[in-house]
Amino acid sequence: MSDEFRISSDLAEEMVQHCKEGRPNEACGMLGAKAGETVKVFRMANAARSPVRYSLEPSEQLSVYNALDEQGWDLGGVFHSHTHTEAYPSPTDVRLASEDVPYVIVSLATEPAEIRAFRIIKSEWGAEDGEILEIPVTILG
Questions:
Q1: What is the side-by-side strand order in the sheet with 131-135?
Q2: CATH number of the CATH domain containing 64
Q3: Which residues partner with 87 through β-bridges?
Q4: How far apart are CA 64 and CA 70, in angstroms?
Q5: What is the pTM (predicted TM-score) of this model?
Q6: If 0-12 CB within 10 Å is exposed, 13-18 middle and 19+ buried, where does residue 1 land?
């Protein structure tokens, strides 16, 4: 498991643009990775349709997992936006974390948007709380 989150400037901009287009609600999606570097942004609908929380749409989530398998990619992360707050996992973000991947948060509270990544470590995935570890974000090119 990588100790950093790596993404090209073009893919980072695509992720930020999706988040901006989702306003006033949070936007979300998943990321495909190959050899530890993000290679695809999967834009997804926020099933919660909320300005303060997100939920990945289950049928889209299944489609992304199928696409990852077909391409031989890894799940490189899950991303969502915070429309008015800093890019840091909320208690709800921690409670709902269910994958051992980077959780990428795009804060739209500032211009330019801020991108930060975190690992959420839990004793078991159903646990309500966990340890939040920030990992470096490297934007390439």
A1: 131-135, 114-121, 103-107, 74-82, 28-34, 37-44, 5-8, 137-140
A2: 3.40.140.10
A3: none
A4: 10
A5: 0.95
A6: exposed
pLDDT tens figures, 72-83: 999 999 999 999
d(CA 111, CA 2): 28
Confidence bin at 1 (pLDDT 50/70/90): low
* Closest among 81, 134, 85 to 110, alpha carbons compared: 85
Q: Which amino acid appears at position 55 of this protein?
A: S
Domain count, the chain: 1
Token pair, residue 11, equals 């893919």
DSSP-assigned states of every residue in the chain: --SSEEEEHHHHHHHHHHHHHTTTS--EEEEEEETTEEEEEEEE-BTT--SS---B-HHHHHHHHHHHHHHT-EEEEEEEEESSS-SS--HHHHHH--SSS-EEEEE-SSSS-EEEEEEEE-SSTT-S--EEEEE-EEEE-
Instruction: Name the residue among 115, 104, 135, 130 with its Cα closest to residue 3.
Output: 135
Give the span between the Cα atoms of 23 and 31, in whole angstroms: 20
Q: Show the domain range for 105.
A: 5-140
